[in-house]
Amino acid sequence: MVGVGPGIGLAVAKRFVREGMSAGLIARSESTVKAAAEQLAGADVLPLTADVTDEAGLRSALDRIVEAYGVPEVVVYNAALIQSDRIGDLTAQQHRDAWAVNVVGAITTAAHLAPAMAERGSGSFLITGGMPLPKPDYASLSLGKAGVRALVTLLHQQYGAAGVHAASVTVSGGVGPGTGWEPDEIANHYWRLHQQSPADWIEEIVI
């Protein structure tokens, strides 16, 4: 789980460990990943810190997870830079920074793990999507989530025939209790995607 902060990340981790899985947990801050691990007390988890924009650091954390648990059965990329901005508000560097979190970190994660999953012939690579329609007040996030959607399609084209299910859960609104986007309910969709047989694979669930 890359991006295991409170909300979707923690809920998805809980859903999968409830099925008896071990979990590698990655977050940018030590306090965040420790809090998540405490919420998963009793499960076999490995909490690690890494910034998804630091390619070497992210790859090192992923290697530690593979060393502990082997090639993962499921990878969830949940990191995102959620901020309100309109076209013209951000500098070019700020757009690159947002893209690095929202898309490039997912590319790095996939490039590091998907080939081994394909060699094994199975696995799920799931990404938290959003913005089914672009919103002018969330320009950088809209662009990032469009990139995620394209990335899922590319991963399916490259690795689907080898047995790797690439898909996204596209969340259409703000996540939280009482919002209509409850983290625990959202987490069930990740498990549903992971459980699909190849004949029933879909690339995106929009909720």
UniProtKB/TrEMBL annotation:
Coiled coil: none annotated. SUPFAM superfamilies: NAD(P)-binding Rossmann-fold domains. This is Short subunit dehydrogenase. InterPro entries: NAD(P)-bd_dom_sf (IPR036291), SDR_fam (IPR002347). Pfam families: adh_short.
